[in-house]
Amino acid sequence: MPLTSEKSVQEILGSYNDKAPLAEAATIAGPFYVDPRIAELETQNVFSKTWQVIGRTDQVEEPGDFLTFNLAGEPIVAVRGADGVLRAFYNVCRHHAAAVVSEPCGHAQVLHCPYHGWNYGHDGSLKGMPEFDGVKNFERSANGLVPVRAAIWEKFVMVNLDPEGESLEEFLGGIKKRVAPLGVNRLNYAGSRSYDLACNWKVFVDNYLDGGYHVPHLHKGLNSVLDYKSYTIENEDRYCLQSSPMVESQEDAATGATRKGDRAYYFWQYPNFMINCYEGYMDTNLVIPLDVDHCRVVFDFYFADVTSEAALKYNEESIAVSERVQDEDLGICEAVQRGLKSRAYGAGRLSVRREAGEHLFHRLLVADLKGTSRYAVAAD
Ligand code: FES
Ligand SMILES: [Fe+2]
């Protein structure tokens, strides 16, 4: 049995002092990253109650376009209606619970369950059931797909499993006005990369939110295009914006050629979504927990030009630079996960200069795990 099982969940949650200012704060302790009971609590209190990205708007542009996603153990389908409205539903047939839509994305006139052939409309209504004559006390109108709240932000399809929770606008808060001027809607989707990591999802998020602390040590190529000393970190609502002026790289041609502009913008939106922007470039990172010590990180890449031959070559090179950075992060995240399990580790202190983002993340997370108001957490 792991050492952590000796502690109750309440003791683990209580071990975090959410009142400590950054200069006195510590990280959440090891058990937060290795105890399956915490992972289960996150499924219920974090991933089932926050707005979550489940796909891209370019996947569901036309009526009948759909995409599917597994969110917090729940199969979800989002589909564009003839009225132009994007709706989401539990992808669970009301007959005997089969997945009505089995492809990751596509186009369909009706949502047709492969098991016994029940059909649902794009609005989720049950349209037809073969061989169902004579069934008594069955209300077709009460047997449509069960809806899930859905909304769109920039190029992202988002849902919230909590029917009671706040609107997407309220959830996003100030990040909307910060992302809008970057004009990411003008960029075009070019491809994805998916990485499975042997670490808790929060290890990846922490690594992202260390304010560039690890960049000079771990990412020499990336470091050569950033003005590391001028790196800024801003917390507001549920987001952290890390930003750095860009400089000409003397050392790394590939990074210098594909990471351009005046500033690099790295947005994190609680709990698990990141948007990284350079000039004419965006990638997003969605961090999906698989179990307590595994996660999947999906990178989606967007570029200004995705058609000309020169652009395709450039975009490939740019994705290759991202893959190299990701490889550098992957090894360290897995080493951290092993360390978090060690009896030698408790919790760690935070750099005031660099690690305000992690501080915000940990306070928001613990507030959600405790079920206390998210509004109680003030940004630094
Ligand atoms: S489970 Fe869908 S039709 Fe039977
Ligand atoms: Fe990194």
Structure description:
This protein is of the alpha+beta class and 380 residues long. It contains 11 helices and 17 strands. The strands form 3 sheets. A 7-stranded antiparallel β-sheet has the order 1-10-9-4-3-2-5, with no helix packed on it. It has a 7-stranded antiparallel β-sheet with strand order 11-17-16-15-14-13-12, with helices on one face. The chain has a 3-stranded antiparallel β-sheet with strand order 6-7-8, with no helix packed on it. A hairpin with a 6-residue loop joins β6 and β7. α3 crosses α11. It is globular. Bound molecules: FE2/S2 (inorganic) cluster and fe (ii) ion. The site of fe (ii) ion has 5 residues, from loops.
Brief digest:
This protein is α+β, with helices and mostly antiparallel strands. The protein has helices at about 10-15, 30-35, 35-45, 170, 175-180, 200-210, 215-220, 220-225, 255-260, 310-340, 355-370, and strands at about 50-55, 65-70, 75-80, 85-90, 105, 110, 120, 125-130, 145-155, 155-160, 190-195, 230-235, 240-245, 265-270, 275-280, 280-290, 295-305.
